[in-house]
Amino acid sequence: MKKPSHHFFVCCSFRASGEPQGVCHKKESPSLLPYLETDLADRGIDAQVTSAGCLKVCDRGPALVVYPEAHWYGNITGPDAIDAILDALESGKECEEYALK
Ligand code: FES
Which of the residue ranges 26-30, 81-85, 94-98 would you say has the lowest mean pLDDT? Predict the structure, then answer.
């Protein structure tokens, strides 16, 4: 099994019941997935994208986390935020504009 260099977990607000309920889903976080997948492929970044359950930072959603860097991001409102995060990743940095501290 080939493991990806980076793994993005995008909160889609899934709860234990399987039902998506929460801020990120209501703010349409699932719509970020196709753009993120395409942007990663276009940039040639070896990464996997997974839709995730609640990341417990609901008040700052839509949220995502990137491993192994353990970079947590919030207020991901659209493609501009994804672009900024991937620009930073390619530079080996955390994107300060969206970083959760
Ligand atoms: S619903 Fe996304 S962090 Fe809780």
Answer: 26-30
Q: Domains (ranges, CATH) in the chain? A: 7-90 (3.40.30.10)
Alpha carbon distance 5, 40 (integer Å): 12
Residue entry with tokens 């977990």: 9
Per-residue pLDDT, 39 = 98
C-beta 63 within 6 A of ligand 1:
yes
Q: What is the CA radius of gyration of the chain?
A: 13
Do residues 51 and 33 lie in contact, with contact meaning Cβ atoms separated by under 8 Å? Answer: yes
Among 65, 57, 56, smallest CA distance to 6 is for 65
Any ligand 1 atom below 6 A from CB of 65:
no
Q: Is the CB of 12 under 6 A from ligand 1?
A: no
